[in-house]
Amino acid sequence: MKYLFIPADILIPAGISMEAWSVIACDQFSSEREYWERVGDNVGRAPSTLRMILPEAYLEDVDEEKEIRKIRAAMEEYINRGYLSEIKNSFIYVERTQPDGRMRKGIVGTIDIEEYDFKDTSRPAIRASEGTVLDRLPTRIKVRRGAPLELPHIITFIDDSERTVIEPLADKAESLPLLYDFDLMEGGGRIKGKRVTGSDAEGVLGAINALYTKQTERGTGDMLMVIGDGNHSLAAAKVYWDEFKQTLSEKEREHHPARRALVEVNNVYDDAVSFEAIHRVMFDVDVKQFIKEFEETRPQGSDYTIRWVSRGESGSIGIRADCIGDMLTIMQTFVDDYVERTGCLVDYIHGDDSAVKLAEKDRCLGLLLPAMDKSELFMTVAKKGVFPRKSFSVGHARDKRYYLECRRIKP
What we know:
This protein has twelve helices and 19 strands. A hairpin with a 6-residue loop joins strand 9 and strand 10. The mean pLDDT is 92. The chain is an alpha+beta fold. The longest helix has 19 residues, at 324-342. Strands 1, 2, 3, 4, 5, 6, 8, 9, 10, 11 and 12 form an eleven-stranded mixed β-sheet that branches. Strands 13, 14, 15, 16, 17 and 18 form a six-stranded antiparallel β-sheet that branches. It has two domains: 5-274 and 396-408, no CATH class; 277-370. It has helices at 18-21, 33-43, 64-80, 137-144, 167-171, 198-215, 231-244, 250-255, 287-297, 324-342, 352-359, 377-384, and strands at residues 5-6, 8-13, 84-97, 103-112, 116-117, 126-127, 149-150, 155-158, 178-183, 190-196, 225-229, 260-267, 275-283, 304-310, 313-319, 345-350, 364-368, 392-394, 407-408. 31% of the residues lie in helices and 26% in strands.
């Protein structure tokens, strides 16, 4: 039987401050360095995942090779100092209380990278949800290449309307051994993790495989999971594995730890799971010219509406499209073409307030996109392929996964 999602030997912090250890995903607040400066102040000199990542807010002006060496050194130091305790052959059942008070439930374990691909022409069991920005991969690949640990912020979704995989653990959560329970910094809410082993883990395996069988009957093909967050981190792991496995024998490939990736699985039908739009903010742009060309070239209609804001001005643009995925493709194609023709810049911003704030600057324009109904996710990916890059976000920025658990990717 094929097991796409299995328990792992998971490393969690031991004897150190959990609050200082756990920081938000590196691709958040990419245009708000003040956020990451506060994180640095909060962490101080304490052991922290901040030392093992490169926040994208700093990508443009750091010595990449130097930062990667520092990341690997921090990983080795934390291993050697005994800051990480290994939880053998386990899942972790996670309860994340979000800033709005809703609790999102998930299971941390590993997926088989051989069963995943980010190419839109591929139809694997585990699929990307959005287009991959290839020029965002090299740094992530370099970090993974030679690193002793992975510490992902990847969230994958299952389409489990009958709530057969995760929810049974929620019903018995009080009886599961507690691993961690603490507040996340910078208003990230609270997180609690419990160990899942033995018959409980076997129950998860059985339910996942039963769900995989049902997926073929629902018209979504041989698809079990869709990546909801961390698409680029998993894509980098895939590229690295495809490169590294060429040095291994068939037997070595079968069980090498780099073949798998640590993720958190969520049920798309979880009441706390919501999809938020990822907005576009244009920098150094001729606002009037952009709006004029966009209005002239889009398919005429009002099936979907994009709101735009710019330094005291605002308006809306209607677009005719069969589904939100098609609307996003129309919009992204125009933005990409405009950036290439004019040399302006674009960033992808989580949160209405952050986008509006950035758009108030001179020669800036915010494109505020509508949110996607989560019921559209699996059927759209199955029938039309991946969404355009940065189409949606799982919740608001502070709802994102914080780095916490680690796993060895070297034997």
